[in-house]
Structures are given as C-alpha cells and as structure tokens.
Amino acid sequence: YVLVPVYMWIKDQVVPKGEPI
C-alpha cells in the first residue's frame, strides 16, 4: 500500500530518531 511508506517517512520527519510512534 502506497501510504504506508509515506506515513513512515512523515513520522520520521516529525518524531526524533529512535522514538516510538
């Protein structure tokens, strides 16, 4: 599904590295 990697990328931009969702 296309929006899954997109969501993961956005989360990576907003959430600091190593932090859970």
TrEMBL record:
Superkingdom of the organism of origin: Eukaryota
Molecular function GO labels: transferase activity
Keyword entries, A-Z: Transferase
Protein name, entry field: MPBQ/MSBQ transferase
Organism of origin: Lolium perenne (Perennial ryegrass)
